[in-house]
Specification:
2 copies of one chain form a homodimer.
Chain A (H helix, E strand, L loop, with lengths): L2 H6 E8 L4 E7 L4 E7 L8 H17 L10 E4 L14 E2 L4 H6 L2 E2 L5 E3 L3 E3 L7 E3 L2 H11 L6 E6 L4 E7 L2 E8 L1 H11 L15 H14 L4 H4 L2 H7 L8 H23 L7 E4 L2 H13 L6 E3 L3 H11 L11 H5 L4
Parallel strand pairs in A: 1-4, 4-7, 5-8, 10-13, 13-14
Antiparallel strand pairs in A: 1-2, 2-3, 6-7, 8-9, 10-11, 11-12
Amino acid sequence: MTQSTFAAARLIGLDWGSTGLRAFLIGAEGHLLDTRDAALGASVLQGAADYTRALQELAGDWMQAHPDLPNLPIIACGMVGSKHGWLEAPYAACPSGVTQLVQGLRSVPGTRVCIVPGLLYEPADAAPDVLRGEETQVVGALQTRPELAEKSCIVLPGTHSKWVDIQHGQVLGFATHMTGELFAVLRQHSVLGRLMADSSSEENLMTFLSGVDAVRKHGDLGLTHQLFAVRTLGLTERMPTSGLHDYLSGLLIGHELRSGMAWRRARGLGDAPLVLVGEPALCRRYAQALQRFGLPSAQALPNTAPAGLWQLALAAGLVTSSVIPSSSIATEPLQ
Amino acid sequence: MTQSTFAAARLIGLDWGSTGLRAFLIGAEGHLLDTRDAALGASVLQGAADYTRALQELAGDWMQAHPDLPNLPIIACGMVGSKHGWLEAPYAACPSGVTQLVQGLRSVPGTRVCIVPGLLYEPADAAPDVLRGEETQVVGALQTRPELAEKSCIVLPGTHSKWVDIQHGQVLGFATHMTGELFAVLRQHSVLGRLMADSSSEENLMTFLSGVDAVRKHGDLGLTHQLFAVRTLGLTERMPTSGLHDYLSGLLIGHELRSGMAWRRARGLGDAPLVLVGEPALCRRYAQALQRFGLPSAQALPNTAPAGLWQLALAAGLVTSSVIPSSSIATEPLQ
């Protein structure tokens, strides 16, 4: 870390999820100076001391006050703000935008850390839904691509995929799909994993798409039924065992898309742009699957969390657009 | 075991699944004389010696030739006939009835044991499906309720539920739903199990039905989405944690019924009787859920495996309807 990188730094941003902690050193105008990550997620930490130690371990040198420079403000999103995290930042209710998120920021006593709230969506007649961390990625996506703010559908694939309804710069609602977790759990713990080749992590696009197509053509047979084909196709040697995990992935993502596309239409977003946000390889898979559902050109944005963290810190006055923040703002973030 | 029970015995029937072995001592006309079971399923056995020992352990005294009586023939169904079972009895192809099943019987060399084949269903344009053990329960159900043979839908709830299309005394096709396994795997290994009260095995019918109703009303949101409500309803304290497993069960069974009922209509069975076969408490739950789907009076049959095993043994000539089988038939079952 050079003296000049330190001098340029304005903010430490943290994307602190269940399984991992990613830290971003952010410079003026949200420019990303450095990134680090570690398997120090909220699920392996307990109590303030654990969180302090984890942060020190990953970004201690960033946090060290440089003789000539003020301490950097720190802003964190994700499961760090859950009931069992470092400090609970209660969910902001939808519809919600930057203003509501900033109002919900919570500062951790005795630290320079501010935590972004998650979002709660309560549909009129269905079960509530929640997210934490993705609200910040959405803010970053709208910052990166302002034309999405008026009306768009942002899809964040992952362990728990989120389909987000954006209108007038606000999150009107969203729907979670447990696609990634279902894949992991079924592969590791169900009969479907038994025939899968152990070593195979090679990706087979055609097999993946044949799973997607099975859903497109026969999705009304239901996921609880179609999953069993992962076993029968292996058992009857219709599909090499090396492809079974791709087929499973295709079935699960296919069912997510089938429901998600119907949800999108039902919410009046059928003509609005659909943009994928997340890990590039996974977004590519989703884009390929979306083609099969008649959406030929879904664009993808890589990790927008740093942009979102910067944007929220800016709106909260933790940083300013072109001036080094005063230490009073940095150490006393808004309540 | 009295001398008279032995004297009345005609057949030993085995329902030998992945996790358990159930043995039935069957008398003239299929009358059930005794039942035993043990956790000696195919998944914990390897090789002929294991199977022989397990059978000896559970039913050794039944198998002992009584001085005055011939050795009893033995007929077995279930995973015992799979590729990794005692001896493979290759799947019979649908459409299939008693005749095809008897043609597919395999006798285990050096024993008096005959194994019933499973069924393979290959739809024209979808993935193949398989079952083992349920074919025998279906034969037993049609024996118990002959009016179902012409046209009916037999549903066998369980780890892997089976929906079976019966027409003209034959199995035309069927569909597996991994409902029970999904429930177990999600409860034990996913985030959905985390908030569930540990000790709760109490059943709450209303909560179960609210899960079923969520599918009935909003099933188009998709299972991958709706499952997440098990977490959010607990997290937001909208549902006591003691009810979450019932709600999960309602969602999964609800999605099975939603797809199963559509499948039934698509196969022209909309007006044919639907009968549940299996464990009474589980069948009761399915019947209650089916009511919500507009089917008020689904009847349930308890375990029909013994009746099916008797019927298949009879058709194979292993036993006769009113005469003690000759030892030559008993020791040399048809190939």
